[in-house]
Amino acid sequence: MQRYKIIVAYDGTDYCGWQRQKSVPSVAQKMEDTFLVVFNKKIAFAAASRTDAGVHALGQVAVFRTDLVIDKKKLFFAWNNLLPPDIVIRKLEVAAPDFNIHKAVELKTYCYHFFTSRPLPFVQRYGWYFRYPVDLAKLEKALQVFIGTHDFRSFCTGDERENTVRTIQTISLEYLRRYNVYRITVKGPRFLKYMIRRIVGAALEVASRPNLSIDYLSDVLQEKNPEQTLPKAPAKGLILYKIKYRGE
């Protein structure tokens, strides 16, 4: 039985997320079903991140096992060739015997894209068109509130039973002139479900409303109340950009 590690990119628009669901298409289900069609073998994935419905990925990492005896280059090309256009395996390799897809994560990088003017049709499905004027200097200050180790209970689903303390190492804001889009890049070892989207939505809300202060945002973070009413950014703007493992 051989264990493989893959890096996958996908457009999440038409999927319920990475994780297999009973009645709606997921990225994992599409990849597993395609593997079965090509090689007549069943596989099941363990993935580094369970991206939500509509979220995209450039660097999702997953592992699977198979008793299929085949050259890895042939496996890579045959599998990729039958996958739909919105899923691409970027890399396939034999996983190291001691590789742990969750515990070995050193850093995850997510990017969130938003437009301040109506985007072109070719890029609109990968970013949030935020229709209100944004004070960019205030937005940068708002994002800095979340850097460091905090209890992010105010910025998750509210259903978590686990510890909601997480560490954000860096958050940056940049403008990509080629696409007329702003990119917020967030880096940290682990994130809660909806955490980045709730952070982005809250920061943009504060940066677009003169009556909301940076101190107000800090207070919301400290209150640890998942029922706070600041908006959650839509899924379409979020992309799992890269996962770095210890030793890489």
Could you characterize what this model shows?
The chain is an alpha+beta fold and 248 residues long. The protein folds into 2 domains: 2-94, Alpha-Beta Plaits (2-Layer Sandwich), CATH 3.30.70.580; 105-245, Pseudouridine synthase I, catalytic domain, C-terminal subdomain (Alpha-Beta Plaits, 2-Layer Sandwich), CATH 3.30.70. Helices cover 23% and strands 30% of the residues. Strands 1, 2, 3, 4, 5, 6, 9, 10 and 11 form a 9-stranded mixed β-sheet that branches. A hairpin with an 8-residue loop joins strand 2 (46-47) and strand 3 (56-66). The longest helix is centred in the C-terminal third of the chain and has 14 residues, at 195-208.
Percent strand equals 25-35%
Would you report the number of β strands? 11
H-E string: EHEEHEEEHEEEEHHE
Largest sheet: 9 strands, mixed
Low-confidence stretches: none
CATH architecture of the largest domain: 2-Layer Sandwich
What fold name goes in the CATH topology slot of the largest domain?
Alpha-Beta Plaits
Distance between the termini: 25 Å
In total, the number of domains comes to 2
Number of helices: 5
Structural class: alpha+beta
Gyration radius, in Å: 19 Å
Give the fraction of residues assigned to helices.
10-25%
CATH class of the largest domain: Alpha Beta
> What do we call the CATH homologous superfamily of the largest domain?
Pseudouridine synthase I, catalytic domain, C-terminal subdomain
Gross morphology is: globular
pLDDT averaged residue by residue: 96
In short:
This protein is of the alpha+beta class. The protein folds into two domains: 93 residues, Alpha-Beta Plaits, CATH 3.30.70; 141 residues, Pseudouridine synthase I, catalytic domain, C-terminal subdomain (Alpha-Beta Plaits, 2-Layer Sandwich).
